[in-house]
Structure formats: C-alpha cells, structure tokens
UniProtKB/TrEMBL annotation:
<dbReference type="InterPro" id="IPR002877">
    <property type="entry name" value="RNA_MeTrfase_FtsJ_dom"/>
</dbReference>
<feature type="domain" description="Ribosomal RNA methyltransferase FtsJ">
    <location>
        <begin position="178"/>
        <end position="296"/>
    </location>
</feature>
<dbReference type="GO" id="GO:0008168">
    <property type="term" value="F:methyltransferase activity"/>
</dbReference>
<dbReference type="GO" id="GO:0032259">
    <property type="term" value="P:methylation"/>
</dbReference>
<dbReference type="InterPro" id="IPR029063">
    <property type="entry name" value="SAM-dependent_MTases_sf"/>
</dbReference>
<protein>
    <recommendedName>
        <fullName>Ribosomal RNA methyltransferase FtsJ domain-containing protein</fullName>
    </recommendedName>
</protein>
<dbReference type="Pfam" id="PF01728">
    <property type="entry name" value="FtsJ"/>
</dbReference>
C-alpha cells in the first residue's frame, strides 16, 4: 500500500552497494514509497537520514541497557579490524539518539589500551549502532541491535537536524570542506546529472573546466570551494560582503567581490564590456545559497543577472529556497512549488526541477535548471 504519512525519516541499509546516498535517492523517487500519488507533499524528502549496517551484525538486546551498549561496541570493534584505526577518524551514529552517550562511554572504556579517534566533525568513517524495534505480528517483544562501519557519506551524515556542523570544516585533511554547504552543492549537481543522463564533467552545452561561475552569498566559501577546487571552473566570482575562508580566498581561480549582489551584477557587466575585445566569457554557472526573506527573490536575482546580460545562453543555475518565517510545512511546499511553476512557464529556462536534498535542512529546497 502507498505510504501517505510525511514522517518517514529513517532507514537502515544492509547492502553491499557502495553509495548509500544514490540508493536513498532511488528510494525517494519511488512514487508509492514517497506517497506522491496520494499526498500534496510533492517535494518533501521521504528519507532524511541513513544508518549503514552490515549483514549478519545483529544482536539481541536494547541500547537503553548499558551492558547491551558494551556488546554493540564490541561488535563494532570486530568490524574495525578490517581498517587501520590509526589512519581513520570516526563519528558515531546512534539510534535512538538517546543511546549516544552510553555508546560513547562504552567505546571509551573498551579502547583504553588502543584508542581510536572519535571526531563528530572531521571524520573519515561512520560507526552506526541502531536499535531495531519489533511491532505486533512480527515477533513483538524481541529487540535487536544492528551495527556497521562505513566510509563517510557526508551528504546523508550532515542531515537536516545537524546544525552544529554548520560553521566548522568538515572532512579530514587539507581538503576539508569549509562549510556544510559544500556538500549541498555537490549533491545537487550529482543528482541533476544523474537524473538528466549527464556525465560527471559535462552538460549539454559546456564543461566544468571552461565554466565561469557566479556564487551569490558565498561566505565562508563552501560552494565557491566546490566550484573552484573540485570542479576546476576556469573562474569563479564569489560574491559576499563577508570574508571567505583563507583556503578559498587563496585559490587562483577565485575572485572575491566583497559587495552585495545588486552591486556585483553591474560590476561584472562592466568588466565583461571592457574585456569584450578579448572575448571575455559570460557566466554559465549561477549558484546562490543566500538566505533571503522572500524565497522568490532568488529567482528575481537570477532574472536580474540574465536581463543585465552577464549570463550566457543555457546557464546552469542552482538556487536554495529557504523558509525563514513561521509558515507551516505545507505552506512552504506550496510557496516553493509556485517558484518552480513560475520558472517552468518561462521560455528562458529548461530542465527546471525542485529537490529536497539530503543536505538540505527541513526548511530548504534546491531549485535547478538551465
């Protein structure tokens, strides 16, 4: 039967598939699972967080019990034997979340002689320990614990309800993302490419290494970092009155415009006109993660840039629509749908879609097209 409730937020994956996020995308697109055939919540995410567990790693017990937490930790330690713990850092994902402190205490006691590095922000792997509840008709009264160790799949790990990782660097090493927003753009582009049968390096009319990008409201630089360092865009205009992280500011293909977007658009246009004899390239990637009072303003800025003449034909755009006021979830979805319908009715855009990404917060949607 179709699922009609919007409150389907967790899934435990026991699969050899190496990309949990791609699998969750598939689940969210299923019309019966998502309830899109019976619900008005057309753009809401069905699954917002995942726990990757290993087949066969099942214990009888309950994570509300300290002894059972110690048994779960011992199972995870056996799985860690496949890795070099000293070359890795780990984050614990516990369900229910109330078991987190007991599991941390059990982990600290069990690794006194050979400690592993636990880091909730800069981690290479995720330790999942979850309580599986039984329900009437399926062995009621028997509780199980499932465990698993998986490489970090950050877009799902940085879930909607994880605000503490917003401002600190994520990941490990010198290439750590300067903000959580980095993974939002990464997931958006990968999802769009997958849905539109594009390759990882090209769209229908351009390629990343020749792209000129405009990142609106960029500080501290997560999206700029992804465009410049990961996709190697030829040039990135990074627009924000605020400061960029030094690691982003120093990238050779980044030009920080410390001003508002309303000032930056005519500034870029003037630069393009001055360099016209040298065939200055117009912008063909327009992205914005700005927090605006009215979500329709994201579209207004896109159209302003187009009307000013700084955008090339078929410019790819990625816009975050954010609910900044106390509207209901249904009201927010309706507002986002109106913005989507407006762009779809415009002959100036194509391939327009609205996503609720794993990296979006609950009150965010990502609007894309070209």
């Amino acid at each position: 039967t179709p699922a009609v409730t919007p409150h389907k937020s967790l899934v435990f994956l026991s699969t050899p598939r190496t990309d949990p996020v791609a699998l969750l995308h598939d689940l969210n697109q299923d019309p019966w699972l998502s309830g899109s055939r019976t619900s008005r919540r057309r753009n809401a995410q069905v699954v917002t967080k995942a726990y990757v567990v290993e087949p066969g790693a099942v214990l009888s017990g309950n994570l509300q019990n300290t002894v059972d937490c110690q048994r779960a930790v011992a199972t995870v330690q056996a799985q860690l034997a496949k890795l070099d713990p000293h070359a890795c850092s780990f984050r614990i994902h516990a369900f229910p979340p109330s078991a987190q402190s007991r599991l941390l205490a059990a982990m600290e006691k069990s690794v006194v002689d050979d400690p592993i590095r636990l880091d909730p922000k800069q981690f290479t792997h995720i330790l999942s320990m979850v309580q599986v509840y039984q329900y009437p008709g399926r062995g009621e009264g028997q509780d199980w614990i499932m465990t698993g160790v998986s490489p970090s799949f950050v877009p799902a790990a940085s879930s909607h309800e994880d605000p503490e990782v917003e401002d600190d660097k994520l990941g490990a090493g010198d290439n750590a993302a300067v903000s959580r927003a980095y993974f939002k753009l990464q997931e958006a582009l990968q999802r769009y490419q997958q849905d539109h049968n594009m390759t990882t390096t090209t769209t229908t009319t351009w390629n990343w290494t020749q792209a000129v990008a405009l990142d609106c409201g960029s500080a501290p630089g997560g999206w700029t970092q992804y465009l410049a360092a990961e996709l190697h865009c030829r040039h990135v205009y990074s627009v924000d009155p605020g400061a960029l992280d030094p690691s982003v500011q120093d990238l050779p293909n980044v030009e920080h415009l410390a001003m508002k977007l309303q000032q930056a658009i005519p500034w870029i246009r003037q630069k393009q006109q001055q360099e016209e004899q040298q065939k200055a390239a117009k912008i063909n990637v327009f992205v914005s993660d700005m927090c605006l009072h009215d979500m329709s303003s994201q579209v207004e800025f896109l159209l302003m840039a187009r009307d000013c003449g700084i955008l090339a034909p078929n410019t790819l755009f990625v816009l975050t629509l954010k609910c900044t006021t106390g509207y209901s979830q249904q009201s927010f979805d309706d507002q986002a749908q109106k913005v989507l319908d407006r762009l779809r009715s415009s002959s100036a855009t194509r391939g327009t879609v609205l996503y609720h990404l794993f990296s979006n917060r609950q009150g965010e949607r990502t609007l894309m097209g070209y």
